[in-house]
């Protein structure tokens, strides 16, 4: 049953009358000396707006934007995202997010209060104290990537089953060899949670195998703006029991088991995370969320799992020319991976789960055409993250292997219990060394012959639907073979995003220019409605660079890459 949530008010910052009198026009930075938290207050005559000094992307700190002559924008020190504080809208990337505003109130002495209106933590509704767990009562078995099989009393729950086939066309493949009985484990599940629509979590090849045996298996997804199963009918997979549930509401499975799906603070339209509670013991799975639940999460849960690896973006592996030397790329990748490790370690330190497990990062670019990407796109080592966590806290860490099982009761009682984690038998194959490329490449190649591509009208229809315009960018799209040579009879056209036109030649005005060579654009348009960044040459007034084989992430992939 859904519960109403009472709103509460929290005072984040109090400015004295003298501090209020000294406010300057434009941007003002403040820090609460008691909490160490930072805030931004914007003054325009008698109008005041305020927000937390925290970027929505990855929680970076804003500083004054020296390129802003109007004194209205701030720049994030992490990835150069920019926020117009006068409107509370992000301007880099453009048309993306709005910053959450704080309430500004004057007190009785002409001082000023910054207030945050908060609902109580939804997982605290109808709280349940942890009860005794018998050995073997709660067991978590790792299958592959982000897929976990949870035994919770007499119920079984599975997370994000990607167990066969590729993800993102043919860009990602499983690093680990799933247990040979993975399909039986799926069929025995009482319910499945799928976090979001990306194909390393929503795997139609996997679900097709499952649907052939259990089409009515209960599957639960969050009520995201972009439906998780938006492409179900076109996929041909016959699933008949998909349940879309609201955010922040406990879903009762039985008297001992319930779960709650929460949205991501950065991508609430798509990403979700989940809290599973059995007899008062919570398991938190943040999956791919950049800022799960806006940064508000339960502390001291029994088990927390999250992504860790990095490497989902094609930048900068797919760029060359200008500053993008191999040395520059290597240093950039090293720095970014270190930032991610530190962020995850800090999050775990703040939340203090009893046990932490890094997962959802065990993929590999195994197709021969992606050899360079595989060699360049270095991922984080889960053991390195676990070692970093153990330096700063007493959190128990678990690096999972396919088929390994964690007994929650044993590990909570005695982390040194030899039966707390049961590893797969000796000789079990851990890493995949072969992938069945053939059937999936056949589907890719067949897309070229689809009748929709017989007529060039699809080009205008697609880009009009995508709605990306009013940006001084011209893109040349060139359809190619796997070796990036022009496809015989393939499309070759220009798109001017300033007015969303399709000129025969580049305009004479100064503009950013890209050459985008896409080997698999046809299939991606048919199955996802997305155009990926293929072989991309961007010519700015001072820079030239090339990008190829960037996996599709959203309709705004062009825009997001420009803002990296």
UniProtKB/TrEMBL annotation:
Pfam families named among the record's database cross-references: Lactamase_B_3, Rieske
Xref: InterPro entries: CMP-Neu5Ac_hydroxylase_Rieske (IPR037339), Cnh (IPR027033), RibonucZ/Hydroxyglut_hydro (IPR036866), Rieske_2Fe-2S (IPR017941), Rieske_2Fe-2S_sf (IPR036922)
Domain Rieske span(s) in chain numbering: 15-113
One cellular component term from this protein's GO annotations in UniProt: cytoplasm
Gene3D superfamilies: Ribonuclease Z/Hydroxyacylglutathione hydrolase-like, Rieske [2Fe-2S] iron-sulphur domain
Reaction catalysis annotation: CMP-N-acetyl-beta-neuraminate + 2 Fe(II)-[cytochrome b5] + O2 + 2 H(+) = CMP-N-glycoloyl-beta-neuraminate + 2 Fe(III)-[cytochrome b5] + H2O
Protein family: Belongs to the CMP-Neu5Ac hydroxylase family.
Official protein name in the record: Cytidine monophosphate-N-acetylneuraminic acid hydroxylase
Organism field: Canis lupus familiaris (Dog)
Top-level taxonomy: Eukaryota, Metazoa, Chordata, Craniata, Vertebrata
